[in-house]
Amino acid sequence: MTDTTAARDRVMIFDTTLRDGEQSPGATMTLNEKLAIAQLLDEMGVDIIEAGFPIASDGDFEAVSQIARMAETSVICGLARAAKGDIDRAWAALEHAKKPRIHTFIGTSPLHREHQLQMDKDQVLRKIEETVSHARSLCENVQWSPMDATRTEADYLIETVKVAVERGATTINIPDTVGYTAPRESAQIIKDLLDNVPDLDKCIIATHCHNDLGMATANSLAAVEAGARQIECTINGLGERAGNTALEEVVMALKVRGDIMPFHTGVDTTKIMAASRMVATASGFVVQPNKAIVGKNAFAHESGIHQDGVLKNAETFEIMRPQDVGLSDNALPMGKHSGRAAFRAKLKDLGIEMGDNAFQEAFVRFKTLADTKKDVFDDDLIALIDDERTSTANDRIKLKFMRVIAGTEDPKSADVVLTIDGEDHAATAQGDGPVDAVYKAIDDLVDHEAVLKVYSVQAVTDGIDAQATVSIRLEEGGKIVQGQAADTDTIVSSARAYIIALNKLLVRREKTAASNSDISIAS
Questions:
Q1: Which of 43, 47, 250, 262 could form a disulfide with 12 if both were Cys (CB 3.0 to 4.6 A apart)?
Q2: What gap in Å lies between CA 346 and CA 237, rounded to an integer?
Q3: DSSP-assigned letters across all residues of 301-335
Q4: SS3 labels along 265-299
Q5: pLDDT score, position 361
Q6: Exposure string (b/e) for 353-390, b if CB count within 10 Å is 16 or more?
Q7: CA angle, residues 336, 339, 341, in degrees to nearest 5
Q8: DSSP code at position 237
Q9: Burial of 94 (0-12, 13-18, 19+ CB in 10 A)
Q10: Three-class SS of residue 49?
Q11: Helix (H, G, I), strand (E, B) or coil at 206
């Protein structure tokens, strides 16, 4: 393969987990979580990281700014509406990056022009001229997107792209903002633009698909076959409504089916599982068991025929190796006699890295877990580490003590002690069951109006001594937050998940308030 051919067949991966992914209701991430995810994306070879929307909040600005300073190899991108203030704010956050990119956009479909923007076609064209030119005056790397491109009139879409290219955009992104298009149409849009926009071949054409009709991956790959060379995607397909194109799906599709799709990416696929777990923990969105590539059942075989085939030759029922995406082939359990060296080696095998202090804390928790469970399996360790990462020293609410009375006879009650902003507060409450009683006791201590929308329990591994991962969703005033925690005691994991969600709710409040909000302690 010549260098020219390699460059032509190279597909850039643009990850927007920290921007579009975080727009999922309840997926708010802390600054430290964003930095950790960005560092892993940078290490795994993601070409462009869309780190946030700098004008949206001071928190978003700070995250983009710190990621811009930290990244070693990835292009760091900030989103901006078609407004000078947005673009200036994005550049202020990006200017220290080794490889900065400004991404600006405007709605182009009739629905967006008439109802959202209340602008006619000519006004939109003038706004594109003005804002792309301004972005290019600040940054050499400028991406432009016609929002809702797939519902924009074909001739007008061509006209808008012409203007953006003329004004200096270096990447033209075609978003399927509402997940409306289908593969054949996705490809045709790219072909029409290449045939009708002068000098477009000198730009990178990108595709950004949502999964409302379940076709995001197919639409993205169809666009690549038609000439797009950048896919916008998120880890685990995280995103608004039904989510975005999943990074792991398009990357592995190109890797596995290179025979019919002769394209390649620069992503180190062995880090995919680590990224999936980190994003699931930070966002609170549990990966469905049958999710392609990263689901718990993606490499599981229960059918006797399948098991027999895999034992004889894994390729009979597996089109990729678990190791290709970072899954360990060593599922030997650990126990209470396992030492630090074995624990560290196991974490390394699972693709988990942590500093000395975090490692010591995790080892203590492992030993506690090993005293409770006879065998600690890989999934137990992953849940333990995820739990460690979810709870931080900066949490304003912490569980100090809990005792529950439950059984066939009433009353079911809970005694709870919370440490709130460094001070201990106790409450006792009764409920329909032990979890209800615990939540009511917590509600007596923390003043909030959140409503519990989702409560689910999943066993981490098999057996009566399995850890239970509890996931919850709270909603308060339109703000949605997730909480997730694991423990061999389901009631404990329920309490901790609730507290994690409440801590995230405080973060959401702080992002929308002029100053830090205080926790009101109920009298």
A1: 47
A2: 28
A3: --SHHHHHHHHH-GGGT-SS-GGGGT--S----B-
A4: CCCCHHHHHHHHHHHHHHHCCCCCCCCCCCCCCCC
A5: 81
A6: eeeeeebeebbeebeebbeebeebbbbbbbbbbbbbbb
A7: 150
A8: G
A9: buried
A10: strand
A11: strand
Dist. CA 227–CA 11, nearest whole Å: 10
Q: Which amino acid is at 520?
A: S
- Of 16-25, 131-140, 176-185, the poorest mean pLDDT is in 16-25
> Quick one: how many helices (H) and strands (E) in the chain?
17, 14
| DSSP one-letter string for 444-465 | HHS----EEEEEEEEESSSSTT
Query: Does residue 175 have a cis peptide bond before it, meaning omega lies within 30 degrees of 0?
Result: no
Instruction: Count CA atoms closer than 13 A to 77's CA, side-chain side.
Output: 27
Give the pLDDT confidence score for residue 300 in this predicted structure.
66
For the beta sheet containing 451-459, the strands, ordered from the edge strand earlier in sequence to the opposite edge, are: 451-459, 468-476, 479-487
Q: Is 68 left (phi over 0), alpha (psi -120 to 50) or beta?
A: alpha
Return the minimum-mean-pLDDT range out of 180-189, 220-229, 368-377.
368-377
Instruction: For residue 395, give every residue at least 6 positions away whose Cβ sits within 8 Å of its Cβ, in sequence order, or none.
Output: 499, 500, 503
Q: Which fold has domain 11-283?
A: TIM Barrel (3.20.20)
Residue 305 has pLDDT above 80, yes or no: no
Kindly give, in sequence order, each residue whose CB lies less than 8 Å from that of residue 247, ignoring residues fewer than 6 positions away: 13, 15, 17, 46, 233, 234, 235, 267, 272, 275
Is-contact 498 450, C-beta < 8 A? no
Q: Are 102 and 87 in contact (CB under 8 A)?
A: yes
Taking the domain 397-512, which CATH number applies?
3.30.160.270
Strands lying side by side in the sheet with 412-420: 397-405, 412-420, 423-431
In DSSP terms, which residues pair with 108 in a beta bridge? none
**Who has greater pLDDT, 313 or 72?**
72
* Domain boundaries along the sequence of the chain: 11-283, 297-325, 328-390, 397-512
User: Counting Cβ atoms within 10 Å, is residue 115 exposed (0-12), middle (13-18) or buried (19+)?
Assistant: exposed
Closest CA to 285 of 89, 483, 140, 146: 483
Q: Show the 3-state SS of 103-148.
A: EEEEECCHHHHHHHHCCCHHHHHHHHHHHHHHHHHHCCCEEEEEEC
Tell me which residue of 135, 205, 137, 208 sits closest to 171, measured CA to CA. Answer: 205
- For 321-325, 441-445, 510-514, which range has the lowest pLDDT when averaged over its residues? 510-514
Total Cβ atoms within 10 A of residue 432: 11
The residues with which 109 forms a beta bridge, in sequence order, are none
pLDDT category at 306 given cuts 50, 70, 90 is: very low
At position 337, the amino acid (one-letter code) is: H
Question: Can you tell me which residue has the tokens 């931080």?
Answer: 392
Q: Which residues pair with 207 in a beta bridge?
A: 174, 231
In sequence order, the β-bridge partners of residue 402 are 416
Which residue carries 């098999």 as its tokens? 462
* Residue carrying structure tokens 């004004």: 167
Res. 141: pLDDT tops 90: yes
